[in-house]
Design a protein that fits this description.
Layout: E1 5-10, H1 15-29, E2 32-37, H2 48-52, E3 63-66, H3 75-81, E4 85-87, H4 95-100, E5 114-119, H5 127-140, E6 144-148, H6 158-167, E7 172-175, H7 179-187, E8 192-196, H8 201-204, E9 210-213, H9 224-233, E10 238-240, H10 251-264, E11 271-273, H11 275-278, H12 285-299, E12 303-306, H13 316-333, H14 357-366, E13 373-377, E14 380-385, E15 388-392, H15 395-403, H16 417-436
Parallel strand pairs: 1-2, 1-3, 3-4, 5-6, 5-12, 6-7, 7-8, 8-9, 9-10, 11-12
Antiparallel strand pairs: 13-14, 14-15
Length: about 475
C-alpha cells in the first residue's frame, strides 16, 4: 500500500512551529507530507471558501489537513480538490495526540448495564422537586428512577409520586422494605422493588413485579439463598444484590461476595449499589464509577443503583453512562479501556499540549499586529503581542509588568477595564491549567471532560494610541 501523503495548510505565524512539529511526527506515524503557507498571518482567520482561491495541492497528496479554527462548510473545498479534507486540532501542539487517536468503531457506544438513579429522601421533597430531579436524571442517562424512602412512618404520597412519573414516561422503582409503602407504589406503576429479604418476602408474592433479593446479613450472605429459593418457587422475577460495603467496613470482602454469588448463580441477574463507594469516599467519583462499572461488566452484573447527592459525585449518572459504554467496548473487544472515552478524564488532561518556549519567543519577534496571545508553558504564563513578551508563574506579576510597559509609541499603556478583565480571566484559566496539568488554549474552555461548558470566543485586540474606547 502506498504511504499516505498529507498536505498541511497553515498561515505565516504558525509556519515555523508546524515545520518543527511535522517531520518527527511523520516519521513516527508513517506518512509523507507537504506544508503550504497561505498568504495570511493568522491561520484561524481562514475559511474553506477563502482557501479554495489560494491553495495549490501537489499531485501526490492523498488528504488535506486545514487548521482546526477554520470555520465554515468543507464541501466547496472537497469539490474543488476532489480529496478528503479534515480539520486538524485547534492547537498544533495537539497534533501528536491527533495522530495517535485510533478511530472508534461504528458500534462504539453500546451497553448492557442498566442505570437505576435514586432520588434520596423523597418523603421530604415536594412532587415538583421529585419531577425536576427525575427529568434531570433521565437526561443524564438514567434508565429507571428510584424513589428513595426512609425507615419509619410510611410515605403517604408514594402512589401519587409514582403515578406522576409514570404519566411522564419514566420507569420507576421504589427503595423500601416496608410493604405499606411498596404495595401502593407497585399498584401505581413501580416496576421494581429494592429490596426483599426474610422480613418482607411473603408480601412480595402479591406485588406482581420484579424485586431485588438481598441477604438478611450482608456480612455473611445469611438468608440470601433461602429468599432466592422462596421467590423462585413463587415465580417472582428477581435480581440479586449481595450489598457493596464502604471502604473500611468490608469493601474487599463484599466484592468477594459478588464473585461468590455469580459462582452460585451463573445465570442470575445481579444488581450493585455503588453509592456506598462514590458517596462515602473522599475522591472524585468518575474514576470510582469507571472502575466499578468495569468490575460489573466483567462479572455480568447488568444493573447498578447510583446516587449523586454529595458534591464530588454530582455527575455520577453521566459518568456511569459513559463508563458502561467504555467497559462494554473494552470487555467485549478485549482491549484496554484507554484512549477511548476522554469524557471521563476530568481533573487532568490525557495529554498536555504546550507551545515550546523557544517558539513563543520566536513568535514575539514576528508579530506585527496588536492582538494579545496567551500561552501556558514550562510552568509559566506567557503574554505576547507586538514588541512585547512577558512571562511569569504569577498572572498578577504579568499584569503589573504590563501596566508599566509604556508609554512609548510601540508599547502603549493599555489596561482599560475591558482588556484588564479579559486578560485576567484568560490568565486565570492558564494558571489553573498549569496547576492541574491541563492544556490551555486561549479563548477555549478548559477541558473538564463531560463537565466541560462551552464558552463564546472573546478574543480582544490591544488598542493603538489615539483609538476610541
Amino acid at each position: 500500500m502506498p504511504r499516505e501523503h498529507i498536505h498541511f495548510v497553515t498561515g505565516r505565524l504558525a509556519h515555523h512551529a508546524l515545520a518543527n512539529t511535522i517531520p518527527p511526527l511523520a516519521e513516527q506515524v508513517g506518512f509523507d507530507y507537504t506544508i503550504e503557507v497561505l498568504p495570511i498571518t493568522v491561520a484561524a482567520l481562514m475559511t474553506p471558501s477563502w482557501i479554495v482561491k489560494h491553495i495549490c495541492v501537489p499531485p501526490a497528496a492523498t488528504k488535506v489537513l486545514i487548521p482546526g479554527y477554520c470555520d465554515g462548510p468543507l464541501e466547496p473545498l472537497r469539490s474543488f480538490l476532489q480529496l478528503p479534507i479534515e480539520r486538524g486540532p485547534r492547537d498544533l501542539g495537539q497534533l501528536p495526540h491527533y495522530f495517535s487517536q485510533l478511530p472508534l468503531p461504528d458500534d462504539y457506544g453500546k451497553y448492557d448495564i442498566e442505570i437505576i438513579a435514586e432520588i434520596n429522601d423523597c418523603p421530604r421533597l415536594s412532587l415538583d422537586e421529585i419531577q425536576h430531579q427525575a427529568n434531570l436524571l433521565l437526561s443524564d442517562g438514567a434508565d429507571i428512577i428510584d424513589l428513595g424512602c426512609h425507615p419509619g412512618q410510611p410515605w403517604q404520597e408514594i402512589a401519587v409520586a409514582v403515578q406522576m412519573l409514570r404519566d411522564q414516561g419514566h420507569r420507576v422503582s421504589v427503595d423500601s422494605l416496608d410493604p405499606r409503602e411498596i404495595q401502593p407504589a407497585v399498584k401505581a406503576g413501580a416496576e421494581l422493588v429494592l429490596s426483599v429479604n426474610r422480613s418482607n418476602r411473603e408480601a412480595a408474592i402479591d406485588w406482581g413485579v420484579e424485586v431485588v433479593a438481598i441477604p438478611d446479613d450482608p456480612k455473611t450472605l445469611a438468608g440470601l439463598d433461602n429468599t432466592i429459593d422462596y421467590l423462585a418457587k413463587a415465580n417472582v422475577p428477581l435480581r440479586i444484590d449481595p450489598i457493596l460495603e464502604p471502604i473500611s467496613f468490608g469493601f474487599a470482602e463484599s466484592l468477594a461476595r459478588y464473585l461468590e454469588v455469580r459462582r452460585r448463580y451463573p445465570d442470575a441477574e445481579i444488581l450493585m449499589g455503588i453509592g456506598n463507594l462514590t458517596e462515602l469516599t473522599d475522591a472524585d467519583s468518575a474514576g470510582i464509577n469507571a472502575l466499578l462499572l468495569g468490575f460489573c461488566q466483567e462479572l455480568g452484573i447488568r444493573s447498578i443503583l447510583t446516587t449523586q447527592v454529595i458534591n464530588w459525585a454530582r455527575t455520577s449518572v453521566r459518568e456511569c453512562d459513559r463508563a458502561r459504554r467504555l467497559m462494554y467496548h473494552a470487555v467485549n473487544r478485549q482491549v484496554l479501556p484507554k484512549h477511548l472515552e476522554p469524557q471521563l478524564v476530568m481533573l487532568r488532561d490525557p495529554l498536555i499540549a504546550e507551545t515550546p518556549t523557544y517558539q513563543i519567543a520566536a513568535l514575539a519577534t514576528e508579530i506585527r499586529d496588536n492582538n494579545y496571545r496567551i500561552f501556558a508553558a514550562d510552568g509559566e504564563i506567557h503574554l505576547v503581542t507586538r514588541n512585547l513578551h512577558l512571562h511569569h508563574a504569577d498572572p498578577m506579576t504579568i499584569m503589573d509588568e504590563l501596566s508599566r510597559s509604556g508609554p512609548d509609541e510601540t508599547l502603549p499603556k493599555n489596561l482599560d477595564a475591558t482588556h484588564a478583565f479579559y486578560l485576567g480571566y484568560e490568565m486565570s484559566k492558564a494558571k489553573v491549567a498549569l496547576t492541574l496539568g491541563k492544556t490551555y488554549e486561549q479563548d477555549e474552555p478548559l477541558d473538564w471532560g463531560l463537565a466541560t461548558q462551552n464558552e463564546d470566543r472573546h478574543y480582544l485586540k490591544r488598542k493603538r494610541r489615539g483609538d476610541c474606547k
